[in-house]
Every structure is written in structure tokens, then in C-alpha cells.
């Protein structure tokens, strides 16, 4: 499985954000800084250099896929709250990939990102 828009195959060359997460979404309308804390993921809309946006999508659909790729979790219409789209998850395996879908300025985009260092089984 090699989704369109996939980036960041390793941590080498992946931009680190101001909050300590990874910046994803090159060649998209907006980027996201992905910050993990236990079983919580936060996706902060930002510019390519990690600066918070003054205009951001109101909601996003987020899918996470576990390394055991038959396991995935999707949450739809997650509202932007305190600057991020926040998703709680409970998976049996570590996360392999994230996908964030959003609409901004009348255009829908999806950012897909393989977690640095993750290997599918």
C-alpha cells in the first residue's frame, strides 16, 4: 500500500515543529504538526515552517492505521479546538500511518504520512 501524497519515510529530512512534533503535508494547502502524547494525537494546522495559521479548516476527518495494517480507526468531523484537531485512540499495535482530510477555501485535500521509522508487517 503506497498512498498518494505519502512523505517522510524516515526521520531524516523531516521537519520538526515548534511543539516537538513532525510537520507533514508538503505540496498541500496547509501543513500539520503532528504531536503524540500517549494515546492522544494532536494535528496543529501550520505553515511549512511550523507557524500557526490565522485561517484554518473548521473540522477534519482523521484516520490512523496500525502497523498491523488490518487495524485502522477513523474519526470524522473533528472540530478545531485550542489550535488542533485532537484524536484519542486505542490500538493494539503502534501507528503506521496518519491521514488527515480537510476542506479549506472550497478545496478538499488529504495529507497522508507514514510515521518515521514505522515498518508494516
Summarize the structure.
Helix content is 0%, strand content 45%. The protein contains no helices and eight strands.
Descriptive terms for the model:
mainly beta, 45% strand, disordered N terminus, 4-stranded antiparallel β-sheet, Immunoglobulin-like, 121 residues
What does this structure look like?
The protein is mostly beta strands. It has one domain: Immunoglobulin-like (Sandwich), CATH 2.60.40. The protein has strands at 22-24, 31-37, 40-46, 59-66, 72-79, 85-88, 95-104, 107-114. Strands 1-2-3-6 form a 4-stranded antiparallel sheet, with no helix packed on it. Strand 4 and strand 5 form a beta hairpin. Mean pLDDT is 84; it is low at 1-11.
CATH architecture title: Sandwich
Which regions contain 5 or more consecutive residues with pLDDT less than 50? Answer: 1-11
How is the largest sheet built, in terms of strand order? Answer: 1-2-3-6
Provide a count of the helices: 0
How many domains is the backbone divided into?
Answer: 1
Sequence-ordered SSE layout with sheet pairings:
Elements: E1 22-24, E2 31-37, E3 40-46, E4 59-66, E5 72-79, E6 85-88, E7 95-104, E8 107-114
Amino acid at each position: 500500500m503506497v498512498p498518494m501524497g505519502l512523505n517522510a519515510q524516515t526521520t531524516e529530512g523531516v521537519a520538526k515543529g515548534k511543539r516537538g512534533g513532525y510537520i507533514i503535508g508538503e505540496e498541500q494547502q496547509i501543513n500539520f504538526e503532528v504531536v503524540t502524547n500517549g494515546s492522544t494525537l494532536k494535528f496543529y494546522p501550520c505553515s511549512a515552517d511550523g507557524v500557526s495559521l490565522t485561517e484554518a479548516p473548521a473540522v477534519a476527518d482523521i484516520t490512523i492505521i496500525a502497523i498491523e495494517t488490518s487495524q485502522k480507526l477513523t474519526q470524522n468531523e473533528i472540530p478545531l479546538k485550542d489550535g488542533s484537531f485532537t484524536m484519542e485512540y486505542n490500538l493494539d499495535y503502534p501507528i503506521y500511518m496518519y491521514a488527515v482530510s480537510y476542506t479549506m477555501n472550497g478545496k478538499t485535500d488529504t495529507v497522508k504520512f507514514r510515521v518515521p521509522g514505522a515498518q508494516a508487517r
